[in-house]
């Protein structure tokens, strides 16, 4: 049965949630049923329960700041407290961010749905504050299990025995498709995911559909997505910009958090902390920092071949440099196709640089076809046209080489600004084109005896781009009566109204994005990192080495069944071809002193026995209960910093501490560090409430004094009269 709560408990006690009004009275307490979430609830049930509560807790179109700072967010604080104390479901953050995406994409009742989307995002990142850093890693990187392969008994895929090792064709969005079977388009996949959540949130009762048999699980399209990937798709920029989340992103970027620790047939993808003593050196090939570094080197060599071919420009045959350029182009196209299949079309489309990649591939293949047909048919025109088409490649290749600059805070902020300004510019140009064609039609018909349609098109285009004098020169030749007034109106519209409006609109777009500069930069950085690290493919070949498995293993797969033998062969080929790269990585880490500093948890603090990966999912719930049953430690006892590791070896005596508490008695003696922080926040909230009451009382006293002084002055004036 759902839990009915009328209060938020700030310090473990009981009592109704009461907010002081400006008059010093108490407003009505909130009466909302908190969701009763069990650890074995499937993802669809979890989403349904949370959507019911969010819909009841947020019924007004309030802003993000109002939900975060005012009494409008009291229901969210109660939900966060409830989840932090009683919920250990591993997909809780995934469900909240999926709901944020659903409400944010809704078109009807936009204000209310935006408020609910903000509420989901606030609950998601506030819930993480109740956890240690190691627990945050587990929650943020937990992948939603595929309902088709999930155990009927409800076992979670965190157990390695139940986790199925993906083959070389497994995609990020759960599509078992081969390299030559493309996934649905980005818009189709977005519609599938949004309809999946909509089917669960249309009903506002949590038990209506629990007993119904559905032919297809509406949340099946979210299989194999973790919380960070959903946040990137849902544009949850506030969530991704939180320090605890960015520490995970940075850990993935530097290779402190890895998804593959060995390169073997039975390897299983699972987030874990990197340990140099046990990890396979070839697993460092999947570190995003090294992937992007080698990508820059590949584009530099690509650019060198590109300029060499254009400078050589042999119209009679394919030169050696041109053969290498085509091989580089084929390797680049195959790598992008594999990345699209692995990441899924929705997540692939979130990176703006992938748009440049698509244009590069399209121009490159157009050049190759024109070049091959021209040489085959001895058509000099097609050969020259192919080189002209190849020259267009520089428009996208040169910026793509310097895409690594988007990791810089300055460029990482500027790129989203240009992206939003480009969207607004395209929308505004629709109005410009409509007005332009209206005047073009009128001037062409009125001045048909003096100027042709082609000449009039050139004149109006030059006028629109600032050559106003051309219009004054030809307006009498168009027509003595209608020409001058029409031309003056067109010049005013194009030179003053439209240009000024466009400038102001682009300025507003720039300021709208730049006000959230940090969030925009961290969003670009997060997408950049996640795109490079979330592939479910065990063996990832750097281009142009990726052409070798395509040529060797793809034909054999058509006639030889069995994925195990192919995985073994791919692993052997990967180690044979990438050994120099791995040696360079190992030398770099040894030179920088990072190879030996890796520990079991790589700087992520918190109790290691209360994570999702542990066998006891109720450990955190028990620690919360023990914390509220035990008295708080005095200042003379041993105190650990919030999120610090638990164990004898990790405890250091403070200024007044000389004894060490055993590991098994630590939580009973000192409580949970995250719960300690929660109590401190609750105490601070209570102090703020008392301060608010004091300010309100002082203001009331001042008003009373003013009224009394005003009455005395009136009485004095009456006495004088």
Q: What does this protein structure show overall?
A:
The protein has 721 residues and is mainly alpha-helical. Among the domains are: 288-405; 409-524. It contains 27 helices and four strands. It has helices at 43-57, 64-69, 74-86, 92-105, 110-128, 133-140, 186-201, 227-233, 237-240, 243-254, 288-312, 320-343, 345-348, 353-377, 380-391, 394-401, 409-446, 453-464, 468-478, 483-514, 517-533, 547-557, 563-577, 579-592, 619-629, 666-670, 673-720, and strands at residues 3-5, 32-34, 257-258, 272-273. The strands form two sheets. A two-stranded antiparallel sheet has the order 1-2. Helix 4 packs antiparallel against helix 5 and helix 11 packs antiparallel against helix 12. 34% of the residues are buried. InterPro entries: TRP_calcium_channel, YVC1_C. Residues 1-22, 620-674, 698-721 are annotated as: Disordered. Residues 620-630 have a biased composition (Basic residues).
CA(first)-CA(last) distance: 74 Å
Number of strands: 4
Strand line-up of the largest beta sheet: 1-2
* Strand coverage percent: under 5%
Keywords: Membrane, Transmembrane, Transmembrane helix
Biased composition (Low complexity): 699-711
Transmembrane segments: 290-309, 352-370, 382-405, 425-447, 484-506
Biased composition (Basic residues): 620-630
